[in-house]
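User: Need the bound-state model for (2S)-amino(hydroxy)ethanoic acid:
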Amino acid sequence: MAAYTTRAENIMRRIEALAAISDDSQGVTRTFGTPAFLAGSALVRSWLEAAGLATRIDGIGNVRGRLASPHPAAKTFVIASHIDTVVNAGKFDGPLGVLLGLDLLEQLVSQQAELPFHIELIAFSDEEGCRFHTTYLGSKVVTGAFDNSLLQKPDAAGITLADALTTMGADAQQLVYDAIPANEWLGYFEAHIEQGPVLYERNIPVALVTAIAGQQRVELVFGGMAGHAGTVPMGMRQDALCCAAEVVLAVEEFGREHQQELVATVGKLDIRHAASNVIPGQVVCTLDLRSADAARLAWAYQELQTQAQAIAHQRNITLAWNLVQQTTPVTCDAGLNTLLAHAIADSGYPVVPLVSGAGHDTVPVSAIAPATMLFVRCYKGISHNPLENVELPDLAAALRVAERFLSKLITHHS
Ligand code: HGY
Ligand code: MN
Ligand code: MN
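Assistant: Bound-state model below.
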């Protein structure tokens, strides 16, 4: 275990070095295409190059490193996670999976292992979807699921994704060639922090992910009537913010009522042309709705839309309900999960099956390839927060399990 601890210390140093690159002097923020994002990508690429991998940055900004098998016709096994972050993020959400994967490949290179399949390590460029509110841009390109209409999506400043790619020096016309054809995929492995409290509560370092919840992300635009705060009588107002506030509380109430099967969150709220002496005329907010059960997710989506429209109607406010993106719940591959479960057990840990409430790049990948995920304990399950933390022994444990898993996979295919 001492060797794994030493290797884990090296991974930790890299996680810290990447976390030091941020668009925000206070916290960790590297959203898609920003200067910090580009600097972070360049650093990760330099590590992949130093490891001896054939590296490139593709048309959507993914950093990719390939370790070829001597058998050209072999399939490709992808080890990946993401290096973009939310705003004021933690250090581990994404980079842990990329840099743990890099360590695995460094070992294979140093052993001059003859691989029965190619391995591609990918640092995906936009899992969080913070800038353009569409997740998985990087993994959708690699899986051939990228929708070119996304290129016209504007960010908050009106810059389209196509413009952002041009600024990054990326080539949107190249995207179709950046996919790994479906028939060339052998499978996919992602190590990721749990971002939930189960492993912390049960004092267990790792878990096996069995499924990933589906998501519906919605933009709600409330239209009222801006007015003078000093002259419009209370009974004559069409206050878009008070309407949005009632809907936000209704979302919370609905989520609490059905908390066994779903979660519902309003994470962003923007008062357009806000001023303290103006009755809010337009308010835009987001809804993030998730469930591991596809039918219940669809039902909850309709229920909340009906409730929100009724509140708006009763307040004489218009409501535009714009679905921004949705993903159905996915299940991880039984065969790969069996191998991973054996690797966990052989490493001396209990095999804990967990459903992920968080989305991951595993979601688009699972549409075309067998995929499996290893969860790593994080402090109190806190994530999307600077308090996010992983202890060195848990990182060493995850590395040991992941290396056992990869070794089993190589043996299985040799
Ligand atoms: O929002 C999520 O589930 C992930 O962190 N992108
Ligand atoms: Mn993540
Ligand atoms: Mn995240």
